[in-house]
Amino acid sequence: MTDTAMRAGASSSGLLEQPEVDAATSIENAASNAMPAPRKPGRAEINGSVIAGIGLVALIALWIMAVRFLRVPPYILPAPEAVLNALWSGIAISPASPKGYYLPLWSTLSNAATGFAIGSGLGLVLGSLMAESRLVEKLLMPYAFALQSLPKVAIAPLVVIWFGFGDGSKVAIAALLAFFPVLINSFTGLRATEPERIDLMRSLSATRFETYRIVKLPNAAPFIFAGLDMAVVYALLGAIVAEFLGAQQGMGVVITQAQAVSDVAGVFAALVILGVLGIALHSSVRRLEHRVVHWAHRGKR
């Protein structure tokens, strides 16, 4: 046997002796290598912040013009400086003081965060079950839409009766409002997985859980984060609605007390805080999405 034949035989035997690679591990490695690194903020994001700032300045300018030149009564539209004074009186105070905004804001935010975690987690689990099983979909989907079609203003008093005037009712209503967006978006995203990718996993003898974890869940991640983006704001809204119906502390209580004494500037100050909080929550979810699902934003500038 020649040297060339011996080397070829050795190479062939070496190839045959290579250990088999687990199919799921191969898919994971290929997916991780294909995913680009998280991108840095681009010029479009910076320009978007500048445009948002210009819009805020224009809104305040129109507000000042409406108060000064159109002579809108302060009990309808207070002046910006009056709102700023009311806002400063609640901020420039000890965080432990009951007269400030810190304790009510913490109460509202903690209840909204707890309800958001419960509602979004339950929505993701049930959405995944419905996407994986037609039987579960037919069993749960009609009731989910029926629950969503009910006016939450009518349900909220019942929730307060069931869970009381404590934090339980606030968490329950926040979870109820956060549940449906995550449920529908996770279900839609999981069902939107390409059949070719599922067939590939089946050809590699992957289990259903491996297919869900490696293929379906990453594919549905942009949909899930879209649902979380809506759910985090809805949870905040649900906590405030529950506080309107009956509570001892919270931003809803602050607004109700200000309305009772016709403190319109105080109402506007509380609304400004809630608006800023909503923008902060939305931005936090978007930033988390860009870090976790960075491959979905590839090429977007």
The mean pLDDT is: 83
Number of strands: 0
Q: How many structural domains in the coordinates? A: 2
Number of helices: 12
Would you identify the CATH H-level superfamily of the largest domain? MetI-like
How does the overall form come out from the CA principal axes?
Answer: globular
Largest sheet: none
Instruction: Point out poorly predicted stretches.
Output: 1-21, 30-38
Cα distance spanning the termini: 62 Å
Question: Over all CA atoms, what is the radius of gyration?
Answer: 27 Å
Protein structure class: mainly alpha
Measured by DSSP, the beta-strand proportion falls in under 5%
Order of helices and strands: HHHHHHHHHHHH
What portion of residues is helical?
over 70%
CATH classification, class level of the largest domain: Mainly Alpha
CATH-defined topology of the largest domain:
MetI-like fold
Give your account of this protein's structure.
The protein has 301 residues and is mostly helical. The protein has 2 domains: 38-72; 83-297, MetI-like (MetI-like fold), CATH 1.10.3720.10. Helices cover 78% and strands 0% of the residues. The chain has 12 helices and no strands. The protein has helices at residues 3-16, 23-34, 43-68, 80-91, 102-132, 134-149, 152-163, 167-191, 195-203, 208-245, 251-260, 264-292. The longest helix is centred in the C-terminal third of the chain and has 38 residues, at 208-245. The radius of gyration is 27 Å and the shape is globular. Mean pLDDT is 83; it is low at 1-21 and 30-38.
Strand and helix map with partners:
Blueprint: H1 3-16, H2 23-34, H3 43-68, H4 80-91, H5 102-132, H6 134-149, H7 152-163, H8 167-191, H9 195-203, H10 208-245, H11 251-260, H12 264-292
Helix pairs in contact: 4-12, 5-6, 5-8, 5-10, 5-11, 7-8, 8-10, 9-10, 10-11, 10-12, 11-12
